[in-house]
Amino acid sequence: MTDERPLTVDVVIVNWNAGRSLRNCLHSIARADQSVLRVGEVVVVDNASSDGSDRCLHVPGLPLQVVRNTDNRGFAAACNQGAALCDSDFLLFLNPDTELYPDALRVTGEYLRTPGAESFGIFGARMVDEDGRPQISCSRFPSPRIYVGRMTGLDRLVPALFPPHHLRPEELPRSGPVDQVIGAYFLVRRPLFTELNGFDERYFLYLEEVDFALRASRLNWPSFHIGEARVYHAGQVSSVQLGPWRQYLLLCSRTCYMFQHWTKPQAWLLTGLSLSVEPVARLVGAALRGQRVELRAALAVQWAFLRWLRAGRRQFRPLPGTTPVRQGADQGRVRVACGKRRSA
Asked: Which residues pair with 11 in a beta bridge?
């Protein structure tokens, strides 16, 4: 006899100054059809928000825990922190700037019950904008060719030779296996998450889910895109507040990824491009636009990245605006380290 009891999923949301988006996300979970995939727990891990978005989050009928960090631990570390409080069959890592369509959990649960789902470890949904138009939902695993194309603009000129990192919506007409689903709606089997020791906390922001998906695929647990499950994704609600320092965090995470998963010659070649071709293109663009502020910011980001590299990819520098200054406390530091991996 088939077991028709609902599967259970715990939801982990990492928040940093997401404003009203977080409350909208929580309300969408409460409204979702849970007849097939039941929400056991919702854990919000707040990374020292200063906008009050971690307050007044009670939603009737929603089993909610809120963990408030005194400093910004980074996205990967906060995800692991929330997951440690969960024990359901599945873990759903959900961005605070998303809203579930009413049938998103039901559609996801229906696929999870099919025999075809048994060979996959990670599942994603179709991201849409406020008008329901498909957005970026999945990506290719980064390769030297992909990053060369992105740094030089060749991915736009000759995409056949230098494919873009993200899959365009038209490349995903239906559900199917993919390299990686984006982290905005990232559903993982709990045993797989435990086996991989969670997200690698060396990634403060960006590429943590890419690294996780690649490590999972190497254990024969690939990712699957469920095209019928729709999720509204506003995108960059929190990260946009970092301004040009987003590029610094991306450079650090990208460098960690390259040295972790590529050969050293490949990693050093791409690092060289990160220090030459890519910044020159940014600086020239800022200069041509007459944007002196943007030009100074680009120089500051590149200098910070160079100092990070010279420190052996194990040191990190404080970033403005990442952790709010509290009375009587020092400015929090962003932890972007590429040293020995810590346990989750």
From this structure: 42, 92
Burial class (CB in 10 A: 0-12, 13-18, 19+), 134: middle
In the chain, the amino acid numbered 31 is R
Find the range with the poorest average confidence among 137-141, 238-242, 278-282, 300-304. 278-282
* Measured CA angle at 205 (ends 15, 249), to 5 deg: 130
Q: Which of 246, 255, 270, 222 has its CA nearest to residue 320?
A: 246
Structure tokens belonging to residue 310: 């010279």
Say which residues have a Cβ less than 8 Å from residue 180's Cβ, sequence separation at least 6: 122, 138, 139, 140, 141, 209, 210, 213, 214, 223
Buried/exposed 242-255: b ≥16 CB within 10 Å, e otherwise: bebbbbbbbbbbbb
Tell me if residue 100 falls in helix, strand or coil: strand
On whether the CB atoms of residues 86 and 5 are closer than 8 A, the answer is no
Distances (CA, A) of 162 to 145, 154, 181, 243: 6, 6, 20, 28
Rounded CA gap, 283 and 299, in Å?
Answer: 8
Residue 27 has a CB neighbour count (10 Å cut-off) of 15
Asked if residue 67 lies in contact with residue 44, where contact means CB atoms within 8 angstroms, the answer is yes
End-to-end CA distance of the chain: 38
The string of pLDDT tens digits covering residues 15-73 is 999 989 999 999 999 999 999 999 999 999 999 999 999 998 999 999 999 999 999 99
CA 253 vs CA 3, 109, 162, 258, 295: distances in Å:
42, 32, 21, 9, 22
CA–CA separation, 84 and 154 (whole Å): 42
CA-to-CA distance for 108 and 37, rounded, in angstroms?
7
Burial of 136 (0-12, 13-18, 19+ CB in 10 A): middle
Collapsed DSSP state (helix, strand, coil) of residue 247:
helix
Q: Which of 278, 250, 33 has the alpha carbon at shortest distance from 286?
A: 278
| DSSP per-residue string spanning 169-185 | GGG-SS-EEESEE-TTE
**pLDDT more than 70, % of the chain:** 88
